[in-house]
Write a structure and sequence with these properties.
Helix content of chain B: 25-40%
Distance between the termini of chain A: 22 Å
Structural class of chain B: alpha/beta
Radius of gyration of chain A: 20 Å
Helix content of chain A: 25-40%
Strand order of the largest sheet of chain B: 3-2-1-4-5-8-6-7
Number of helices of chain A: 10
Oligomer: heterodimer
Largest sheet of chain B: 8 strands, mixed
Largest interface: A-B, 20 and 19 residues
Radius of gyration of chain B: 16 Å
Number of strands of chain A: 14
Largest sheet of chain A: 8 strands, mixed
Strand content of chain A: 15-25%
Number of helices of chain B: 7
Distance between the termini of chain B: 31 Å
Amino acid sequence: MFATQQFAHFDTPLALASGAVLPAYDLAFETYGRLNETRSNAILICHALNASHHVAGTYEHEPDNVGWWDNMVGPGKPVDTDRFFVIGVNNLGSCFGSSGPTTINPANGKRWGADFPLVTVEDWVDSHARLLDHLGISTLAAVMGGSLGGMQALAWASRYPDRVKNALVIAAAPNLSAQNIAFNEVARQAIMSDPAFHAGAFAEHDTVPRDGLTVARMIGHITYISDDQMEAKFGRGLREGLKFSFAPEFQIESYLRYQGEKFSGYYDANTYLRVTKALDYFDPARNFGGDLARALAGVTARMLVISFTTDWRFSPARSREIVKALLDADKDVTYAEIEAPHGHDAFLLENPQYLAVVRHYLNQIEGVEA
Amino acid sequence: MITRADFDIIASWVSPKSRVLDLGCGDGSLLRHLADSKQVRGYGIENDEPSLIKCIDNRVNVIQTNLESGMKEMADHSFDVVILSQTLQAIKHTEAVVSEMLRVGREAIVTFPNFGYWKHRLQIGLAGKMPVSDDLPYQWYDTPNVHLFTIHDFEEFCRHRGYRINNRRVLSGDNETTFLPNLTGTLALYKISVG
């Protein structure tokens, strides 16, 4: 399945949660499958921290560039593009095509860089809603995402209840714990204390804070994997025996450095700062005295919440908070707690029960034919 | 082994549009039946992976969690009825679960295979063996049932705990029985509440 990157331009100003206003912006997106006559078979996929609108398939001239959720989305897959019209969208503030720190600020013709405003999950959802308007889709058969993408799905269900029939909230949390925020802050400090960061104006200095980004990614990566999985994969394994030096000696060290360095080669530091802030800020219950059930009172979508047993970043207990709130608010909710050894990353991996839950859930969605 | 007969009795005890929790809901067919016949807002609790998928196929809400601890986070009287269908005999902490059911729900519906059924008595009394039947289809060494009890036992339990029996029906196979139910009944159905 070949994907085609598309862009939509929006001239209507977007008021952001911070109080800033984006006068105009672009969203990069891809679609898979065919929108039916009644425009009732659309599924919106929301991405997590470092992913993009390239959800599934490859590009015609880039056969190795496989979408980040290709095991989930495609013809005959759990999110079956033979039945559904699937939309992947790149979030504002990202660095893969939508307006963000790496794109041009129309006001002055320069790269946005550090001037790009801070955005929230709700800002993203508002911008997605405009993309749906642009595509002529009033109601989504489903919105879904994992991790930060799951938070967007939850925000979608409460912010646009008339536009969502089903929401799949996977490996998410109703807000970040102090520990989650702490990890994000260490990652941000790694970036901001890199001398090459230049207060976010590194592009003007023809440099990139690669060391900071590398460390930020290394920290993040630790939280994506379970202790058991890391032990099973690397244990105390050495590369070539002890050298009594600070070069990477343990396999886990070289693995993390490899992941970090790869990441720092393609990801934008200003984007990383903004996306982690969006995570920190997400807290739909904040305006309801911490009462998530009240925050979700307006939800009309049927909800599917999925967690993974060894996920310690957003643990099953955090998903159960969402489930409890939906139960207390008398909403339709199904909850699957998937036995998986991989930790947070499990939402991206092959797991028969996980994929079956999503497949069967989407199969029983009615009214998407014709 | 749920038969239509006990479905219909349970459905007759559930008010239209009420909020129902089904503990150990299996494939969700009882909840589906209650949704279709009584338009209830139903939720199931189930921890078995294949059953969870079947619930999803049946379009019923299902929460994957442990039946014995899964009610802990639920608010007092947040359900009109909590159902435990043919599962009480397989639960370790019988008292605690029934007490939780009546905290979370205003009423509880409990159904169970009657160990006092005459064929069971014959097997244990004459053959000197643990009973095996359609309603108790297991050998002693592979049964999930950890507490086997009779209609008399359950009613005594309710009396001791101060639970009121609001309804009772007893089935013998697919048919209702009223004659010496503790002897002729294979499946007992109760609706109980506190006080």
